Amino acid sequence: MSLLLTFGLAMVIEQGLRIVFGASPLPFSIPPELRGQVFVGDFIYPRYRLVILGVAVGAVVATWFIVYRTAFGRVVRAGVQNPDVVGALGISLAPYMTAIAALGVGLADLAGVLLAPISGVHPAMGAEILTAAFVVVVIGGLGSFWGVIMAAMLVGVVRGVTIYFNPSWGEASMYFVMALVLLLRPRGLLGERIEKFE
Known about the structure:
Blueprint (H helix, E strand, L loop, with lengths): L1 H20 L15 E4 L2 E4 H22 L2 H11 L1 H6 L4 H27 L5 H16 L4 H21 L4 H15 L14
Antiparallel strand pairs: 1-2
Helix pairs in contact: 2-3, 3-5, 6-7, 6-8, 7-8
């Protein structure tokens, strides 16, 4: 139900943005100080993409610290696993879940802003990544923080290599990876074991 609700809200918001701002992509240029290239031996890296990589690593580390090394994170994890026990302890989960949802929205906003100079700003830019995000979560395993990180890197590498050799198979490659992982390990790379399937 949560997944269907997410897809439904995304479609409604996307169509609303089309009505207000139009469907044409709007340009969003890279800040002048982040333009240029960095040479590392024989490799050439765009400076802006290195900045994106650094921000992504920082966001992952910060999120891990919040969820696994703070009292706030302990309440959230306990609330997800057993909300009745947390409620019996006199802790209201509503503000914690609202805060964690706001954190997720903030991370999505950050990703959208960083991606804007590469793909442009348009109403469907969120929908384009939503399916890939779902695939990454399935491959990594539900409830596994580091499983999702590993899956994201795996999908990124597989898509990049596939696009290099055969661009038409780029999008399909991540679905092949997901099918292979589900056949060999239904719980995902680091997900909790599901007795019914294994």
